């Protein structure tokens, strides 16, 4: 199918710049008002606002979703008490690409229900943060058949520069869970390294710069480490969302009977952040909780 009109639902911190890059790629991008005000920036770039999800589905055979959790994705696709979903008008042979991070099980269930309408549901979670979303340099982890992957690849190139098919439906979400597991240990370790340095009267700004030049370098040290030393916890990726992602990873681990002790420890730290009222702060604020714990031990 020739793709001209694309739907994009979920214009949050990640979705907004991703939709903007699709507009820059020459596509007609359609959306609906969903929980938040549509930015003037997108409207000025030509974003088309439809009255509801069913109308959007009637005009677009390729639709992206980028939403906080499994329940939100299901509500948009299948509808809820307040409004009908995409399934009301979506045509057979349409494709829904989900950029959300949701559970593997929910992904399989949604895919199975949509297959009855001959609609392909593709899990394509992303990594790279808001900077990657703005610069179209996201890593995109795709669960799709080879045929569908070939169809959507040219579109995905407008929002990411590392696009990998991991397998069929659900494989993208499993890879994203692995991604969040890998970040967990790094996030806590960077916070501890900076606290350790500061307690020894070293300048954490300089320590971070030194570590950036050696084997300790990581994207977490580069991005989250900078936010930690600047005490800038404005949300690029919130504790509330990371709590959800780590819970998904731990649930998946339970289902295959393996233990993730480090991930579980970081999940508990992020959970503490949320309990302290930091749920809408960036995950870099984990340094506040770890710092408080280190003080209590003295």
Instruction: Report how far apart the termini are.
Output: 65 Å
Mean pLDDT: 95
- Report Rg: 20 Å
**What fraction strand?**
5-15%
**SSE order, as H and E?**
EHEHEHEHEHEEHEHEHHHHHH
Number of separate helices = 13
Largest sheet: 6 strands, parallel
**Uncertain spans:** none
- In helices, the fraction of residues equals 40-55%
> Number of DSSP strands?
9
* Mass-distribution shape: globular
Q: Which class do the helix and strand fractions yield?
A: alpha/beta
Summed up, the domain count is 2
Please describe what this structure looks like.
With 298 residues, the protein is of the alpha/beta class. It has two domains: 5-168, 3-Layer(aba) Sandwich (Rossmann fold); 175-296, N-(1-d-carboxylethyl)-l-norvaline Dehydrogenase, domain 2, CATH 1.10.1040.10. It is built from 13 helices and nine strands. The chain has helices at 15-24, 40-44, 53-59, 70-78, 104-115, 129-135, 146-156, 171-199, 204-212, 219-230, 239-255, 261-275, 286-296; strands at 5-9, 28-31, 48-49, 62-65, 95-98, 120-123, 126-127, 138-143, 160-167. The strands form two sheets. A six-stranded parallel β-sheet has the order 3-2-1-4-5-6, sandwiched between helices. Strands 7-8-9 form a three-stranded mixed β-sheet. Helix 8 (171-199) packs across helix 12 (261-275) and helix 11 (239-255) packs antiparallel against helix 12 (261-275). It is globular. The termini are far apart. The relative contact order is 0.09.
């Amino acid at each position: 199918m020739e793709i001209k009109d694309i739907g994009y639902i979920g214009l949050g911190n990640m979705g907004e710049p991703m939709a903007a890059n699709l507009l820059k790629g020459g596509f007609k991008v359609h959306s609906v008002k969903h929980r938040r005000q549509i930015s003037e920036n997108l409207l000025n770039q030509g974003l088309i606002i439809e009255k509801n999800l069913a109308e959007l589905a009637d005009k677009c055979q390729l639709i992206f979703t980028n939403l906080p959790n499994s329940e939100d994705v299901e509500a948009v696709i299948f509808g809820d008490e307040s409004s009908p979903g995409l399934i009301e008008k979506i045509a057979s042979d349409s494709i829904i690409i989900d950029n959300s991070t949701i559970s593997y099980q929910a992904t399989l269930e949604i895919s199975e229900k949509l297959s009855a309408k001959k609609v392909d549901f593709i899990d394509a979670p992303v990594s790279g943060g808001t900077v990657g979303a703005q610069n179209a340099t996201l890593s995109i982890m795709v669960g799709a058949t080879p045929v569908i992957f070939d169809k959507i690849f040219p579109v995905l190139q407008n929002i990411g520069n590392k696009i990998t098919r991991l397998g069929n439906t659900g494989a993208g979400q499993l890879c994203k869970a692995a991604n969040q597991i890998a970040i967990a240990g790094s996030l806590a370790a960077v916070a501890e390294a900076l606290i350790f340095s500061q307690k020894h009267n070293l300048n954490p700004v300089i320590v971070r710069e030194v570590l950036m030049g050696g084997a300790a370098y990581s994207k977490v040290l580069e991005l989250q480490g900078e936010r930690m030393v600047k005490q800038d916890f404005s949300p690029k990726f919130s504790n509330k969302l990371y709590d959800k992602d780590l819970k998904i990873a731990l649930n998946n681990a339970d289902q295959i009977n393996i233990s993730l002790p480090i991930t579980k420890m970081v999940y508990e730290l992020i959970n503490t952040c949320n309990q302290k009222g930091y749920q809408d702060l960036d995950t870099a604020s984990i340094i506040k909780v770890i710092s408080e714990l280190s003080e209590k031990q003295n």
